[in-house]
Write a structure and sequence with these properties.
Elements (H helix, E strand, L loop, with lengths): L8 E8 L2 E8 L4 H8 L18 E4 L2 E4 L12 E3 L12 H8 L9 H16 L21 H7 L10 H31 L1
Parallel strand pairs: 1-5
Antiparallel strand pairs: 1-2, 3-4, 3-5
Helix pairs in contact: 2-5, 3-5
Length: 196
């Protein structure tokens, strides 16, 4: 049974993977600990617990967040997606599929954070966000080519102790290509429907 709210505790509702969870948490409870210890969503891993390794990366309102540095109370009312929520039923997310197809993992400990981060990287790139290695950062330049250097820079917050970086970079590139193709199909379909 949850403790009664006190000056050091708050009742919150976390929206995780499309499901609402009412919890009473100590104000110091991190989102990572709430997910793992209170909601039993153990796909999100605890690595360094200092925001340096990326193993605990989740999506909060579609943006990547290291859950070990985010207080659970600060995540109330926001859309939280963990690795358990990225697939559509039995159908894997294209990033998950690319990681499987290209062996973008070894021990697998960092993989959930890598996948969540990669999903956000692909969206950030498609939106035209530059990185530290982007040559032309003018807003009207559009998204830069998603080269291996761009991918490595954008994924640099996620460490892999096994050193699967080559396969991770290839998996992100493949998933980004699938995302671009899917976006092109949606645009073509929308144009056809508008013309009809």
């Amino acid at each position: 049974m949850d403790p009664v709210p006190s000056p050091t505790h708050s009742g919150i509702t976390l929206n995780v993977n499309g499901e609402k969870h009412a919890l009473t948490v100590d104000h110091r409870t991190t989102l990572l600990d709430a997910l793992r210890e209170r909601l039993d969503l153990t796909g999100t891993k605890k690595g360094c617990d200092q925001g340096q390794c990326g193993a605990c990366t989740v999506l909060v309102d579609g943006r990547r967040t290291v859950a070990c540095l985010q207080f659970a109370v600060a995540a109330e009312g926001r859309e939280i997606t963990t690795i358990e929520g990225v697939a559509e039923g039995e159908r894997l997310h294209p990033v998950q599929q690319a990681f499987l197809d290209l062996d973008g993992y070894q021990c697998g400990y960092c993989t959930p954070g890598q996948i969540c981060s990669a999903i956000a990287v692909i969206e950030e790139h498609a939106a035209g966000w530059p990185s530290a290695v982007t040559d032309d950062v003018r807003p009207d330049a559009g998204p830069p080519p998603l080269t291996p250097d761009e991918i490595r820079e954008r994924m640099s917050g996620n460490l892999c102790r096994c050193g699967a970086y080559v396969a991770i970079t290839q998996a992100v590139a493949r998933a980004a290509g699938a995302h671009t193709a899917s976006a092109g199909e949606n645009t073509t379909t929308a144009h056809r429907e508008a013309a009809a």
